[in-house]
UniProtKB/TrEMBL annotation:
Presence of keyword Translocase: no
Name used for this protein in its record: Exodeoxyribonuclease III
UniProt superkingdom: Bacteria
Endonuclease/exonuclease/phosphatase domain boundaries: 4-248
Keyword Magnesium: yes
NCBIfam families per the UniProt record, alphabetical: exoDNase_III, xth
Gene3D superfamilies: Endonuclease/exonuclease/phosphatase
Annotated EC: 3.1.11.2
Gene source species: Sphingomonas canadensis
Family stated for the protein in its record: Belongs to the DNA repair enzymes AP/ExoA family.
């Protein structure tokens, strides 16, 4: 079973690339981020025609997450995270599909830091950690998939110096990500490539793609019962180089 994290950076703008990916790679589950569309404007017919059911948590103009499943309809369990009743951002959706609990996550960027956006990021991560702890208590195979907007290690970025002041690499961001892993979650891509040097994102600016100046911010975390079934992980990098592509590449894990 192939489970994919794919920040599409605007589902309407990238719809041809998304349908192309679904048709060519035929993943079983795809967790989308940054839909940038209200739910009434989502291309549901096109997704269904490609053979996928979907659970959606849209928002006009920015954010937005979804879980797609090949040949079936994901069963929605939860939208959003507890702990902040005033938070209206569409950044979390959790579903049950193929016997798994799967969450699609679009974690706040947090720039500029320091400031209120960075404070929001850290508080959001604490709320995510609370939800992750509750999922582990269910003792189910679960996968937390998405754009975490955290560069966990120095070898997860093309240049430490270039990103040193970015919210993605601050000690507070990394500490909360490590706290999440310490609960018992397995970072699938890190497990497959322990030496780092694997990117999932390349900015549109300054020829980042052409220079391979990227970093790893898209993560797939496995609960112990899912990690027991782990068989592989990788990045479908070539899709980043296609015409009008997202700045993220599809990032995946396979489990039995």
């Amino acid at each position: 079973m192939k489970i994919v994290s794919y920040n599409v950076n605007g589902i309407k703008a990238r719809l041809p690339r998304l349908i192309e990916y679904l048709d060519e790679a035929k993943p079983d589950i795809v967790c989308l981020q940054e839909l940038k569309s209200a739910e009434e404007g989502l291309p549901l017919k096109e997704i269904e025609a490609a053979g996928y059911g979907g659970a959606w948590h849209g928002q006009k103009g920015f954010n937005g997450v979804a879980v797609l499943a090949r040949g079936t309809q994901p069963v929605e369990r939860q939208k959003g995270l507890a702990g902040d009743p005033e938070d209206e951002h569409s950044r979390y959706i959790e579903c049950e599909v193929f016997g798994l609990v799967v969450a699609s996550i679009y974690l706040p960027n947090g720039n500029p830091q320091p400031g209120p956006k960075f404070d929001y990021k850290l508080k959001w991560m604490e709320r995510l950690n609370d939800r992750a702890r509750a999922l582990l208590a269910e003792e189910r195979p679960a996968v937390l998939v998405g754009d975490y907007n955290v560069i966990p290690n120095d070898d997860d970025v093309f240049s430490v110096r270039a990103m040193a002041d970015d919210a993605l690499m601050q000690p507070e961001s990394r500490e909360r990500y490590r706290a999440l892993l310490a609960q018992g979650w397995t970072d699938a891509l890190r497990t497959r490539f322990p030496g780092g040097g694997v990117w999932t994102f390349w900015d549109y600016q300054a020829g980042a793609w052409q220079r391979d100046a990227g970093f790893r911010i898209d993560h797939l975390l496995l609960s112990p019962m899912a990690a027991d079934r782990f068989t592989g992980a990788g990045v479908d990098k070539d899709y980043r180089g296609r015409e009008k592509a997202s700045d993220h590449a599809p990032t995946w894990v396979t489990i039995r």
